[in-house]
Amino acid sequence: MAENYDTALVIFLTELTSNLVTTATLLPVMGAIAVQAGVPPLTLTVPITIAASCACTALALRQ
Prior knowledge:
mainly alpha
């Protein structure tokens, strides 16, 4: 369920900042949250990476 929230956050943030900045900022934060929650870090970090990539693609398709 947490993946849905972090994915939505990344898609929103990539509208305001670059994909690189958003990903570089959120990956360490979500990785640390995953470790503290006892969840494999890839569970929270992979959706962030994919969402940043999809947000860029969605922006390109809109134009």
